[in-house]
Write a structure and sequence with these properties.
There is one protein chain. The chain is α/β, with parallel strands linked by helices and 920 residues long. It has 34 helices and 32 strands. Strands 16, 17, 18, 19, 20, 23, 24, 25 and 32 form a 9-stranded mixed β-sheet that branches. The chain has a 7-stranded parallel β-sheet with strand order 3-2-1-6-7-8-9, sandwiched between helices. This is L-arabinokinase isoform X2. It comes from Nicotiana tabacum.
């Protein structure tokens, strides 16, 4: 530091470090080191081990005081934050003893004759400094009011005063020294930005490798999760040939394969990182900043519920230094494609890495009296802004992360199929590709949903066949060729999205008016629609020939392309003159529409899409005078019991309604889509599926009754609970295989004579058939009670009893399905595997993770819903169940995990191509 300042008296700094992880402590080391080099005393208040500081600073001017004044975020494991537990722990650590903490800290600050207080980023330290009459400054890239605000909204409204108190504490500091990769921090009015704070290197790459006995020809990945998950077994085959893995934080008793090397607990991580070829770990400020500084490719696995992460991830990806790994692949050892992808990156961060020195100078100058701040606004104004902005700037529920296309290719090459098919997203994960660059979004927000981004990119690439006929992407040549001529790029296109659904509770009892709880899943259907004057529509050759044969001018035509036809043995295209839906000036009957779509079995699927047009004509009196071009792309697998048909109907009608300026509420849209399935397709379904697809919200259960169709509210899924769907591989076959197996109880004719009607407008009673009554009547009565109990338990206190009770309700529901004759060998096997896992010695010895399972939807096959603790261990057990099911049946089941917003929440996008390709 400067010679003029060095002539002034030495200062005493009190430096408070948050209890959340080592990343804060490691950057404090660098700032404190520079303060000590300038001749000042630094008292560090921390819960971190001494070696974190003493390995870098050997000076009598460093004083360590082991006190923990905040808890940070409580993690259930290395990758999962427990939001409610975090709030409760903070209350226990910093709120309940607050008066005692303040009194103690004021006395301590005075006892060491502190000149200045630095906080990274302990809230109460700022208030204690103010009470002691000492100035304070915060140094951080995030603040706890921003982090906890999301937790309060999602998991603990009774703790909302915590956010107010934290923001008020921060408002006492002089200003914020803000680090790169920062979150919104509205509690601070005055801000000074500094470069990355990065620990210096002690040894060169060659020296470190020589000490570890590693040659330069060996590829090295450092595994750094801030403490390896307990019980995590690493296997030799996880690494490509010629690779070694250096493991941070391994337990002393853990046995590692020969290609994994256990590092000492006090190993100096920066040197190890600089000697490695890439890093595998979770995102935190320390890992990201040092990976950027040493230009080390970073393969990262995201954490749940810690919203510092997206901002650091964006910085990492902007400088081309990051590759996201799916958590499932971390656990199953499918590392090779990620590591190989990391080797193709060229991290390009060229900014400063001397943030520790810069921050230390600012602290010193401020303590000597230099004014770095503007005139402050009033405390109440700053507090108000902090709270209002803190809540407004929260992450939008349902936003997702991008999984790159290059991984899908690698997955295919490796023969892997562990997740939902076709649920692949952006081509690469750089920041510049996180927005649909090819289109101008004139209305709406794609909500950061990776599948929507992927769909928009596929739209932009439709003209690729013009230049490269062999470039077809994920879809067949026939589909892509048809889609390439579908749209006029000079006109607006409307895009809608609707997810499938997982039946968590309620199932077939919806027909009887029971309460049901449904979750919209991550997999969804996208539909792009263009309304265009017939003279401007790009017709397929046969459609054009049909018009010319009639000797008419251009007339409105509906053209549809549906991706994924090769998976379901159906035609990829459908077209019709919209006049086919008319008899004179009136729409045709639903009966005639069913006959129309039944003519060609390969095109019956079009009834789900085109049927939305007829329903809008008949039910709302809409007159379609223009042509309609429509592209359907669904990632919701068919026949798995997750409502693929409802998602297609809802997405199609939403897009068509948007293109024609129709304002239809999500509930009304769901009811109209039910008419499509009931009357045009001819399937006697209830409205539960369409309601969930239209009205659901991400990470919430839609509570509703279906007779009448009324939404009763949304139920949050607590942060410590996770829900999965596991596909049994058995398609629904009720009418064909199971109906006749029901126990005889009452003849259809006798039922009609006695009761006249069964109050279901979309099914008919066969008078010559015997129907089971006792089990079928018992199920909805008890199911309604079970669903209500399940809903109430979700909001009860977090405990094993809560989870066991929720799981027991799922098991009861499953066996009730069986009593109705709606079970199957596959779904029973999956439920049994969950029970075996739940009651295994491994689960009983520690915290249980899986608690219950049930068949879903219409039963007789399909998907099983599983509930468990939100943790890495539960994810491992789900994968083990997947493996065991394959071993027993030969079928590797699809896993459904995660949630996404319904069509109503998504709304619609109105887009236009920025530089339209040349039309043919």
């Amino acid at each position: 530091m400067g010679t003029e300042e060095s002539k002034k008296r030495p200062l005493v700094f009190a430096y408070y470090v948050t209890g959340h992880g080592f990343g804060h402590a490691t950057r404090v080391v660098e700032v404190a080191r520079n303060l000590i080099l300038a001749g000042h005393d630094v008292h560090v208040v921390t819960g971190a081990p001494d070696f974190v500081f003493t390995s870098e600073i050997q000076s009598p001017r460093l004083f360590l005081r082991k006190v923990l004044l905040d808890c940070g975020a409580v993690q259930a494991d290395a990758l999962t934050v427990d939001r409610l537990a975090s709030l409760e722990k903070y209350s226990e650590t910093a709120v309940v003893p607050r008066a005692s903490i303040l009194a103690t800290e004021v006395l301590w600050l005075k006892s060491i004759k502190a000149d200045f207080v630095v906080s990274d980023v302990v809230p109460v330290a700022c208030r204690a400094a103010a009470d002691a009459g000492i100035p304070s400054v915060c140094i951080t890239n995030f603040s706890w009011d921003f982090i906890y605000a999301e937790y309060v909204m999602a998991a603990g409204n009774h703790h909302r005063s915590i956010v107010w108190q934290i923001a008020e504490d921060y408002s006492h500091c002089e200003f914020l020294i803000r680090l790169p990769g920062y979150c919104p921090m509205p509690a601070f009015r005055d801000i000074i930005d500094v470069p990355l704070v990065v620990r210096r290197l002690h040894k060169y790459r060659k020296e470190v490798r020589k000490e570890l006995g590693i040659g330069e020809d060996v590829k090295v990945v450092i595994l750094n999760f801030g403490g390896q998950p307990a019980g995590w077994k690493l296997k030799e085959e996880y690494l490509p040939t010629g690779w070694l893995c250096l493991v941070c934080g391994a337990s002393e008793s853990q046995q590692l394969p020969p290609n994994f090397i256990k590092l000492a607990k006090n190993a100096y991580t920066p040197d190890i990182m600089a000697a490695s070829d890439c890093m595998l770990g979770k995102i935190g400020y320390g890992t990201v900043s040092e990976a950027l500084a040493y230009r080390l490719p970073f393969v990262f696995v995201r954490r749940d519920y810690f919203n510092e992460e997206p901002f650091l991830r964006n910085m990492l990806e902007y400088y081309q230094g990051g590759v996201e790994m799916i958590r499932r692949d971390l656990l199953t050892g499918h590392w090779r494609p990620y590591l190989e992808r990391a080797m193709t990156l060229n991290p390009c961060y060229e900014g400063g890495t001397n943030g520790g020195e810069v921050a230390a100078r600012i602290l010193q100058d401020t303590a000597y009296g230099k004014n770095y701040t503007l005139d402050k606004l009033s405390g109440p104004r700053r507090l108000r802004d902090a709270i209002v902005l803190g809540y407004q700037l929260q992450r939008v529920p349902g936003r997702d992360l991008c999984i790159p296309d290059w991984y899908a290719n690698a997955e295919s090459e490796l023969g892997l199929r562990t997740g939902s098919p076709t649920a692949v997203t952006a081509e690469n994960n750089s920041l510049t590709d996180s927005y649909p660059q090819d289109f101008e979004i004139l209305h709406g927000d794609f909500l950061g949903l990776s599948d929507t981004l992927s769909f928009l990119k596929s739209l932009a690439g439709l003209d690729a066949l013009v230049d490269s006929p062999t470039k077809t992407g994920k879809h067949s040549i026939r589909e892509r060729k048809a889609a390439a001529g579908l749209f006029n790029w000079e006109e607006d296109i409307f895009v809608a999205r609707a997810p499938g659904r997982l039946d968590v509770m309620g199932g077939i009892a919806d027909y009887s008016g029971s309460l049901v709880l449904q979750m919209p899943i991550r997999e969804a259907c996208h539909v792009a629609v263009q309304k265009i004057h017939p003279s401007k529509q790009r017709l397929w050759k046969h459609a054009l020939a049909r018009q010319q044969a009639r000797g008419q001018g251009p007339t409105p035509v509906l053209q549809i392309v549906s991706y994924g036809s090769e998976l379901s043995n159906r035609g990829p295209t459908f077209d019709m003159d919209l006049s086919d839906f008319l008899e004179g000036d009136e729409p045709i009957t639903y009966e005639k529409a069913r006959q129309y779509f039944a003519r060609d079995p390969s095109q019956r699927w079009a009834a789900y899409v085109a049927g939305t047009v007829l329903v809008l004509m008949k039910e709302l009196g809409i007159c379609f005078e223009n042509s309609i071009s429509l592209l359907v792309s669904s990632a919701v697998p068919e026949g798995k019991g997750v409502s693929s048909s409802a998602s297609v109907e809802v997405a199609s009608m939403s897009a068509i309604a948007a293109a024609h300026g129709l304002n239809i509420s999500p509930r009304e849209l769901a009811l109209l889509c039910q008419k499509v399935e009931n009357h045009v397709v001819g399937a006697p379904c209830g409205v539960m599926d369409q309601m969930t697809s239209a009205c659901g919200e991400a990470n919430k259960l839609l509570a509703m009754v279906c007779q009448p169709a009324e939404v009763l509210g949304l139920v949050d899924i607590p942060g410590h609970i996770r829900v999965w769907g596991i596909d049994s591989g058995i398609r629904h076959r009720y009418e064909a295989m199971y109906a006749k197996m029901l126990p005889e109880s009452i003849l259809g004719e006798s039922f009609v004579e006695k009761y006249t009607d069964h109050r279901d407008p979309v099914t008919t009673i066969d008078k010559t058939r015997n129907y089971g009554v006792r089990a079928a009547a018992r199920h909805p009565i008890y199911e309604n009670f079970r669903v209500k109990a399940f809903k109430a338990l979700l909001t009860s206190a977090t405990s094993d009893d809560q989870l066991n009770a929720l799981g027991e309700l799922l098991y009861q529901c499953h066996y009730s399905y069986g009593d109705c004759g709606l079970g199957s060998d596959g779904t029973n096997r999956l439920v049994q595997l969950v029970q075996e896992m739940q009651h295994s010695k491994a689960s009983k010895s520690g915290e249980g993770t899986l608690y219950g399972a049930k068949i879903t939807g219409g039963g007789s096959g399909g998907t099983v819903c599983v509930i468990g603790r939100n943790s890495l261990k539960s994810s491992e057990q789900i994968l083990e169940i997947q493996r065991r099911y394959k071993a027993a049946t030969g079928y590797l089941p699809i896993l459904f995990e995660g949630s996404s917003p319904g069509a109503g929440k998504f709304g619609y996008l109105r887009i236009r191509r920025r530089s339209p390709p040349k039309q043919n």
